[in-house]
Design goal:
Blueprint: E1 12-13, E2 16-21, H1 27-38, H2 45-50, E3 51-52, E4 55-56, H3 58-66, E5 71-75, H4 81-86, E6 93-98, E7 101-106, H5 108-113, H6 118-131, E8 134-135
Parallel strand pairs: 1-8, 2-5
Antiparallel strand pairs: 2-6, 3-4, 6-7
């Protein structure tokens, strides 16, 4: 074979996504977060994108169903030491589990700057996955 041929970087496949909220778990914490949303007092941007006052947004339910791997939602008080380390100490984030590695897919800064829609989140996930040469089954390419 003559001439240089480009070799494509292998695409790794995510086996799970972790959506980690900047909020604590439990009914009292959920009530407090809802009150902050209602009065515009600032809350977790990932919560605002995925949940409304009445619970999980149907568009987020549909998005999770579209993704062919588990999407696990966690609160800051539910994290393991390994997960906490992967967040870089800033929440909210979305991590991708690839093999036995946790990759930071969407950081707090990105989520805090995004428009609060599920479609915007889906686009951010696709773009981040493409940038990392990562396949998220069911999500497709950006």
């Amino acid at each position: 074979m003559t001439g240089a041929t480009a070799t494509a970087e292998p695409t790794r496949v995510a086996t799970r996504l972790l959506a980690i909220f900047a909020a604590d778990s439990g009914k009292l914490a959920a009530f407090a977060d809802s009150a902050r949303k209602l009065f515009g007092l600032g809350s977790c941007s990932l919560c605002e994108i995925t949940y409304g006052l009445a619970g999980e947004k149907p568009a987020w339910s549909d998005c999770k169903a579209e993704i062919d791997i588990p999407v696990v939602e966690l609160h800051r008080d539910e994290l393991t030491a390994r997960q906490r380390q992967a967040t870089g100490g800033r929440l909210p984030v979305v991590l991708a589990e690839v093999d036995d590695e946790l990759l930071l897919l969407l950081d707090a800064e990105t989520l805090n700057q995004s428009r609060p829609t599920v479609d915007a989140l889906r686009d951010l996930l696709r773009t981040a996955a493409d940038r990392r040469k990562l396949q998220i089954p069911g999500l497709g390419a950006a």
